[in-house]
What we know:
The protein has 128 residues and is mainly α. It contains seven helices and no strands.
Amino acid sequence: MHADINGRNSTFLRATLLAAFCALGLSGASAEDLKPAYNDYPTEARADYVFGCMVSNGQSRDVLRRCSCSIDVIASIIPYDKYVEAETVLSLQLVGGERMSIFRTAATTKSIVADLRRAQAEADILCF
């Protein structure tokens, strides 16, 4: 496997771009067309994801690379505002009580979380 000047695996980059083109329906799009959708996650959100991923999977350089890959793939599939919605719903689902049951049972919240889960599954396939 060959790596580009940033140290990322070129196969991963091709797979990520292909996933982004498919997810966004941009079969004839240029890199400039893809850039706004792919890069709408703030650095803090990406770092927070990588930190949590490393806590779950280990503290090695390889895990850092894989976790960074994972958030990049997720960012290429779902826009940041949808990611925030899904993370919020997941947090609220952890809160007990009758008032919070709406976040566990409503079709809308299930759909929001399902979109994030699909993006995470794609990221797992490509990165881990």
